[in-house]
Amino acid sequence: MCMVETADETVNMLYDATVTARKNHKCSECSRVIAKGEQYLLERYAFDGEITTSKTCAHCQVVREWLQRECGGWLFGGVAEDIHEHAREGEYGFGVKKLSIGMSMKWQLRRGGLWPIPVVPRITGASLPL
């Protein structure tokens, strides 16, 4: 089940831009370090009366894109939980399992360095409204 289906409210997006890190940052979705020189998505949004800033690495943006296509949306800070649930359900194929594993490993290769940015897996369309 897609987490966005149970969301009560939406955010009011104030600003978003792809920027290059001038210092290290922490990804709001997978918690890995976004290194200086790496591109990431910077977003500012209002939710529940507060303004929040989110920084999302390029890898996690792929997971968000899949959730957007498959579920019609995603929840800030809930992307990892949502993709892990979809991977456990088993009907989405290896591409979704790979995204789940990548997030679990914070996109880090065992031998060092980062995974290549993944390709957005195919969607099933099962969760989209008719």
Task: Name a few traits of the molecule.
two-stranded antiparallel ribbon, 3-stranded antiparallel beta sheet, alpha+beta, single chain, 130 residues, first zn-finger domain of poly(adp-ribose) polymerase-1
Could you describe the 3D structure shown?
The protein has 130 residues and is of the alpha+beta class. The protein has one domain: first zn-finger domain of poly(adp-ribose) polymerase-1 (2-Layer Sandwich). Helices cover 28% and strands 23% of the residues. The chain has three helices and five strands; from the N terminus they run E-E-E-E-E-H-H-H. The protein has helices at residues 58-71, 79-89, 94-104, and strands spanning 12-20, 25-26, 33-34, 39-47, 50-57. Strand 4 and strand 5 form a beta hairpin. It is flat and about 40 Å long. The two termini are 16 Å apart. The model has no long low-confidence stretch (mean pLDDT 93).
Question: Could you give a short description of this structure?
Answer:
The protein is α+β, with helices and mostly antiparallel strands. It contains three helices and five strands; from the N terminus they run E-E-E-E-E-H-H-H.
Topology:
Elements: E1 12-20, E2 25-26, E3 33-34, E4 39-47, E5 50-57, H1 58-71, H2 79-89, H3 94-104
Antiparallel strand pairs: 1-4, 2-3, 4-5
Helix pairs in contact: 1-2, 1-3, 2-3
- Unreliable residue runs: none
Can you count the helices? 3
| Helix/strand/pairing category | alpha+beta
Radius of gyration computed on alpha carbons: 15 Å
> Outline, from the CA principal axes?
flat
Instruction: Provide the CATH architecture.
Output: 2-Layer Sandwich
Mean pLDDT: 93
Strand content: 15-25%
At CATH level 3, the topology is: first zn-finger domain of poly(adp-ribose) polymerase-1
CATH class: Alpha Beta
Instruction: Report the biggest beta sheet as strand number plus sense, adding barrel if it closes.
Output: 3 strands, antiparallel
